[in-house]
Amino acid sequence: MSRAAVAKELVAGKARALKMPGLVRVYEGLARQAREEHWGYEEYLHEVLSAEMRCAHACATRASPR
Q1: By residue range, what is the domain housing residue 50?
Q2: Neighbours of 62 (CB within 10 A)
Q3: Is 64 helix (H, G, I), strand (E, B) or coil?
Q4: Could you tell me which of 33, 35, 16, 34 has the C-alpha nearest to residue 25?
Q5: In angstroms, rounded to a whole number, what is the distance separating the alpha carbons of residues 23 and 47?
Q6: What's the structural domain count of the chain?
């Protein structure tokens, strides 16, 4: 298995263990975009954490009684 494939599995596994499904869904696409657009680490981190926050908010909204 390539180093990139191992890293991909490790990131996904750790995000799942931390119960961060939004991050699991978006990190690869955002990483690709970050490479293409030459984002800094902080910008990439901001984007993946923002995606996780949107996911958590959406899950909380669906779970709350109406």
Answers
A1: 3-63
A2: 7
A3: coil
A4: 16
A5: 9
A6: 1
Query: Residues with Cβ < 8 Å from 30, sequence gap 6 or more?
Result: 44, 47, 48, 51
Task: At 45, list the tokens.
Answer: 């981190």
Q: Which two tokens stand for residue 66?
A: 């109406």
Contact between 20 and 4 under an 8 Å Cβ cutoff? The reply is: no
Helices within the chain (DSSP H only): 3-17, 21-37, 41-63
CA dist 11 and 45 (Å) reads 13
Q: Residue 31 is which amino acid?
A: A
Extract the tokens encoding 16.
Answer: 């799942």
Which residues, 6+ apart, have CB-to-CB distance to 17 below 8 Å?
A: none
Q: What is the pLDDT of residues 6-55, one digit of tens each?
A: 999 999 999 999 999 889 999 999 999 999 999 999 999 999 999 999 98
Tokens 């009684």 correspond to what residue?
65
